[in-house]
Amino acid sequence: MGKVYVFDHPLIQHKLTYIRDVSTGTKEFRELTDEVATLMAFEITRDLQLEEVTINTPVGPAQSSVIAGKKLGIVPILRAGLGMVEGILDLIPTAKVGHVGLYRDPETFQPVEYYVKLPKDIEERDLIVVDPMLATGGSAVEAINSLKTRGARNIKLMCLIAAPEGVAQVQQDHPDVDIYLAALDEKLNEKGYIVPGLGDAGDRLFGTK
Ligand code: PRP
Ligand code: URA
After folding, report:
1. pLDDT tens-digit profile of 154-186?
2. Ligand 1, closest atom to CA 109?
3. In this predicted complex, what is the ipTM?
4. Given 8, 108, 176, 208, which residue is catalytic?
């Protein structure tokens, strides 16, 4: 079963509080989401492999470490996942970005796929699927299905906030996928929203309703 990591770094928790706050406007919501994505990317890349290289410092030769040429990919689930991409690219500027477009039917909560565009060498890349919200888990499960169908093998899922129901669904359907969160909330309400959550992530990011 996939592991679940909740990043309790004080900066992440502090910024998440303002992301949740209903009085936070679109501009600030966007900026904070970006910043939290950067901080989460810092934590999630902790296990990147290093290799030794020889360099010359002004004082003389030295053995030092660089990241071993691992190919990374970021896959936002549209729309709201887009809000986390730039923040990750600030740390990993060479990562390729794929897109999976899904929306959740408001009546059935079932994900509906409308767009997929991925890097060609998807099967060679370590992928981070990003979406601010993991609610029922339907969208994340479907996005990961879509990636696996196209050959992806190494996948991590990174979300700001999850409900226990969504975590359980991903663990059941994709036991090979670890989940990285800023918060694990209490439950879903009858409309499928995470409680207390942050409301509709896409609408808050893009100023729609
Ligand atoms: C939201 C969110 C997730 C999904 C989570 O997207 O960004 O993709 O809901 O819900 P689930 O876990 O129950 O599937 P939404 O469908 O609102 O689309 P949007 O990003 O285009 O606003
Ligand atoms: N999608 C959102 O944007 N927010 C939720 O709380 C659940 C699904």
Report:
1. 999 999 999 999 999 999 999 999 999 999 999
2. 13
3. 0.98
4. 108
